[in-house]
C-alpha cells in the first residue's frame, strides 16, 4: 500500500512515539522511510536556531535513521531550515518531493485543548498535506 513514508521528527518524545509506527508500516509494505527534520530559525537562514541544542537534535535524528536502516528498511534523512513558524509547510514540501504516500508524525499529547493536544505542526499538516497524515497520540502502541 505505501511505497514512501515521511517520518517527521523534531527530537521530542511525541515525535519519537511515531517511529515504531512508521517502521511497522514500512516493514509491512516494503516501503522506504524519509525522515524529515525542520530546523526553525528566528530571523533568516543565517541566524541562530531557536533550539540551542539543535546540533544534538540533528545528531540524534541521524542516529534514529541508522537504527531504522539497521532493521533493513531503506532510510534517508532530509533536513530543512525555516524561519520561526513554518515547519509544517517544509515537511509537506519534503513529502511532495519524496512522492510520499503517508506522513507519520507524533502529537504533543499533554493538553486538553485540541490544537495544543495535536501540536501546531501536526494540526497544520492535517490541513495542508497532499497525502494522508498519521498522527500518533500519547499512549498509542503499534500492533504486533
Task: Characterize the structure shown.
- It is a single chain.
- By secondary structure, this protein is α/β, with parallel strands linked by helices.
- The chain is 40% helix and 23% strand.
- It has a single domain (4-136), classed as HUPs (Rossmann fold), CATH 3.40.50.
- It has 6 helices and 5 strands.
- It has a 5-stranded parallel sheet, with helices on both faces.
- Helix 3 links the parallel strand 2 (32-41) and strand 3.
- Helix 4 (87-97) crosses helix 6.
- The model is unreliable at 109-117 (pLDDT under 50).
Defining traits:
Rossmann fold, alpha/beta, 144 residues, 40% helix, 5-stranded parallel beta sheet, globular
Main-sheet strand order equals 3-2-1-4-5
Task: Give the name of the CATH architecture.
Answer: 3-Layer(aba) Sandwich
Strand content: 15-25%
Residue stretches low in confidence (pLDDT < 50, at least 5 long) are 109-117
CATH topology: Rossmann fold
Q: How many DSSP H or I helices?
A: 6
Amino acid at each position: 500500500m505505501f511505497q514512501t513514508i515521511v517520518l517527521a521528527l523534531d527530537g521530542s518524545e511525541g515525535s519519537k512515539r511515531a517511529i515504531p509506527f512508521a517502521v511497522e508500516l514500512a516493514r509491512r509494505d516494503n516501503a522506504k522511510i524519509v525522515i524529515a527534520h525542520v530546523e526553525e530559525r528566528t530571523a533568516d537562514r543565517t541566524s541562530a536556531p531557536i533550539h540551542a541544542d539543535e546540533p544534538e537534535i540533528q545528531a540524534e535524528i541521524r542516529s534514529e535513521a541508522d537504527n531504522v536502516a539497521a532493521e533493513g528498511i531503506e532510510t534517508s534523512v532530509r533536513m530543512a531550515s525555516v524561519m520561526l513558524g513554518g515547519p509544517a509547510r517544509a515537511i509537506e514540501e519534503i513529502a511532495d518531493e519524496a512522492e510520499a504516500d503517508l506522513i507519520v508524525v507524533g502529537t504533543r499529547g499533554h493538553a486538553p485543548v485540541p490544537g495544543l493536544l495535536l501540536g501546531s505542526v501536526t494540526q497544520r499538516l492535517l490541513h495542508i498535506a497532499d497525502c494522508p497524515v498519521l498522527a500518533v497520540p500519547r499512549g498509542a502502541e503499534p500492533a504486533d
